[in-house]
Amino acid sequence: MNSASTRKSTRTTKWSPKWSSAWTGAALLATTLTAAVTPAHAADPAGTGTYVALGDSYAAGAGIPASSAGLCLRSDHDYGRLVAAALAPTSYVDKTCAGAKVGALTMPQRDAGIVINGPQLDAVTPDASLVTLTIGGDDLGTSDIGFGDIAVVCSALSLSNPLGAPCRDFYGDTLTKRLDSAAAQLAEALQKVHAKAPKARVMVVGYPSVLPDDPKKCLGKMPVTTGDLAFLRSVLGELNDKVAKTSTVAGATYVDTLGPTKGHDSCASDPWIEGLLPTSPTLPLHPDATGERVMADAVLSALRH
């Protein structure tokens, strides 16, 4: 991708504080499976048939104008919409929704008891030629804000031990167990995708570079200790590693977006992933419009291979 395609455009729309309460999404989860699931037939060309986009706020481009679908905050600049524009499929269905956990693939997604999105897999039909999904990060937290839930806890705990890693000590191996639990659900969901659309190319899109490899780059930019910044980065790394492994075993293609967004994390001087207080219209710790475009380019690149 050339520099012109990744350069941020000047925006007239400013971030609104309402996005700060909508922490969602950061992620897909998985673990090693014991048996592979493979499509019954060779995949149809991705530009024919129906393209179905599934997933959480990272897939929905939540917070980026213009949005629709109520609390799902589905953006017309999400990576699925950009991929569809490039491929021109026969039809495009976007079922992404902010706050979606892995269970939202097979069950209605609710907010305060009200259904805000039906089971996402209902959109997958036999004529689908391409299915993309990014999901699982919300399963990391105990609430619908997922990874944001963890970041809030880490921020609060930093006051108790500013030179240590109190958040890491607090969670222990809890997050790994949550990843493993969600991974089992994801594996089952991928089997159902293949069964519903045996000719589709299924692409599991990983999470971008939310935090840098060097936690010192976030000093003064995030109210989290250096030790816990390293811990949070390791959680995101574990998330993507398990996603990649599960996708391969399940007969899906894993799309890496971590590499293409490195150097443009939430603590970078030129971020494509916004910080805790976004300066561009998006959710905290989520891709902005440039980040979604880079993710779309990663999907299109993977389709060529």
Using brief descriptors, characterize the structure shown.
single chain; 305 residues; alpha/beta; Rossmann fold; 5-stranded parallel β-sheet; two-stranded antiparallel ribbon; 9 helices; 33% helix; globular; disordered N terminus
Biggest sheet strand line-up: 4-1-7-8-9
Mean pLDDT: 85
Name of the CATH class: Alpha Beta
| Class based on secondary structure composition and strand pairing | alpha/beta
Query: How many helices?
Result: 9
Unreliable spans are: 1-42
Name the helix and strand elements from N-terminus to C-terminus, one letter apiece: HEHEEHEEEEHHHEHEHH
Largest sheet: 5 strands, parallel
- Count of DSSP strands: 9
Question: Shape from CA axes?
Answer: globular
Topology, pairings included?
Elements: H1 3-6, E1 50-55, H2 57-60, E2 67-68, E3 74-75, H3 79-87, E4 91-94, E5 109-111, E6 114-117, E7 128-134, H4 147-157, H5 166-171, H6 174-196, E8 201-205, H7 226-249, E9 253-255, H8 258-261, H9 289-303
Parallel strand pairs: 1-4, 1-7, 7-8, 8-9
Antiparallel strand pairs: 2-3, 5-6
Helix pairs in contact: 3-9, 6-7
